[in-house]
Amino acid sequence: MIQFSAYKMLQTADGELPLDVNFTIEKGKFIAVYGNSGAGKTTILRILGGLTAAEQVNIKVDDVTWDDAEKKLHLAVQKRSIGFVFQDFALFPNLTVRENLEFALSKGDSKEIVSELIDLMELQSLQDNKPERLSGGQKQRVALARAIVRRPKILLLDEPLSALDDAMRFKLQDYILKIHQKYELTTIMISHSIAEIFKLSDHVLVIDKGRITKEGTPENVFSEQKISSKFQLTGEIISIKKSDIVYVVQVSSGNTIVKVIATEEEVANYTIGQKVLVASKAFNPIIQILS
Amino acid sequence: MINLNPLWLTAKLALITTVILFVVAIPLSYWLAYSRFRFKAVIEALISLPLVLPPSVLGFYLLIAFSPENSFGKFLADYLDLRLVFTFQGLIIASILYSLPFMVNPILSGFKNLSPALQEASFTLGKSRLTTITKILLPNIRASLFTGIIMTFAHTLGEFGVVLMVGGSIPEETKVVSIAIYEEVEAMNYHNANVYAGILFVFSFVILLAVHLINNKSRKTTLY
After folding, report:
1. Three-state secondary-structure class, residue A230
2. Backbone φ, ψ for residue A119 (5° rounding)
3. Which of A211, B76, B111, B157 gives a 20 to 30 Å CA spacing to B8?
């Protein structure tokens, strides 16, 4: 069980932002941390990992105190049972894949775990390569494997999949799940993808401006806000054409073009090139001017 | 026959200075790169000072400081039996201060160019600071270390003002090549001056050529 409580003043682009977060996580759970950039998600992971100091902090893992600001207690990063996967992978460029994993071994440890992880993460053919020769997805697998070599209790993942394309993401999600289950980890992952959170996590913490604004199962957290509400996309009007008694407005968004019916009065407000929001509740799409 | 002693003395001075600076500059640069000490900028400015200060100014202050007439020099002489004015030891100390930025700056920028996550990743894998520095950080800034070594060595070869102030020109003790050239010119021995100057010129060029060849090569192999 992880009991986490921290207060820290964050310096952000918009000035100071107090991070004030409390939560408890049961052993073996998969937790997702969701929220806007700059809300303090990474800082939470870093405080838990002992990489960032906080003004007020109290962390207990399985009844062992890792941090207690009042008693001036701080367990060194090296002594915390964590595996940390960094956003930029942080693989050691001077070492091969296998050496990156072996680096994590302590003196006298058997190298078996390294071979086991290389097999599990399907890195056999890459094990003698240096990191610079790997693709993003391959690097991520190495980083994940390396974080597990010490058999930590807690795995911390800082947006591990954000730099990858969809196909690679899906595959890596399976690797993460496999590792989480096989090594009986308590995993905390920062993610921006709701689909990913649904697939992987048991519990979500939604962070906004330094506070937990919502928590619960993914179904509970996202259902009202994201699922049954309207679908919406933003785009640009590329053409307005009259067709019988109505107008057809074409909106381009990403690489799709949406046709929306509009009345003459509505069309009077639209111009080509305008940025708009197309939203739909049940059947009727409506266009909303953005700027 | 030309006296080769100044050449030998110069090489010895450059070698000793480089070795000492290498050992000193690694922890110093590491500290500058990773600490959040508030007055770090002051230290960095002090280290870079020899880049802009006329060598004679630095030499002058060192001469004053080392002089047994003053408290620091007297302390050295009385308690450590160390005389730094017009001695080879004095030259070494002066060279170390004078060449400090040439060793520290490349190593410092090497450290700063590494992702901070490398060190943190090593810590999360249970490794101490010392292991992290020797096994991860230093091997990844090899080119910077090499540049620091070569630049320091080359720069020490070319010292003149500081050496003249602190060391004077005592044969076999403080008379390095640059001073020897100056004296040969003053005595109108253009031939000897020419030999010294030519050796220094070729040697400096070869050293710098090596730096650039190696840097270009390492760039090709480390960055795709």
Report:
1. coil
2. -65, -50
3. B76
How high is the ipTM of this complex?
0.83
What domains, with CATH codes, occur in chain A? 2-227 (3.40.50.300), 231-289 (2.40.50.100)
What would the pLDDT profile of B16-67 be if each residue is shown by its tens digit?
999 999 999 999 999 999 998 889 999 999 999 999 999 999 999 999 999 8
Q: Which residue has the higher pLDDT, A280 or B78?
A: B78
CATH number at residue B52: 1.10.3720.10
Counting the structural domains of chain B, the total is 1
Which residue type, as a one-letter code, is found at position B187? A
Mutate which: A46, A47, A51, vs B, most B CBs within 10 A: A51
Q: What is the distance, to the nearest Å, from the Cα of residue A220 to the centroid of all Cα atoms in its chain? A: 18
The encoded tokens of residue A134 equal 């790997």
CB atoms within 10 A of CB B171: 12
| C-alpha span between A237 and A65 (Å, rounded) | 58
What Cα–Cα distance (Å) separates residue A256 from each residue in A165, A251, A253, B74?
Answer: 19, 8, 5, 84
pLDDT at A190: 95
Are B142 and B217 contacting, i.e. CB atoms less than 8 angstroms apart?
A: no
**Whole-structure pTM over 0.95, yes or no?**
no
pLDDT of residue A68: 93
Residues B62, B93: contact at Cβ < 8 Å? yes
| Distances from the Cα of A156 to the Cα of A31, A84, A172, A180, A185, angstroms | 10, 5, 15, 11, 10
Q: Which of chain A's residues have a Cβ under 8 Å away from the Cβ of B135? A: 103
Q: Which residue of B has its CA nearest to A148?
A: B125
Query: Which runs of consecutive H residues, i.e. helices, occur in A104-161?
Result: 112-120, 136-148
Reference B6, options B146, B183, B130, B147; nearest CA is B183
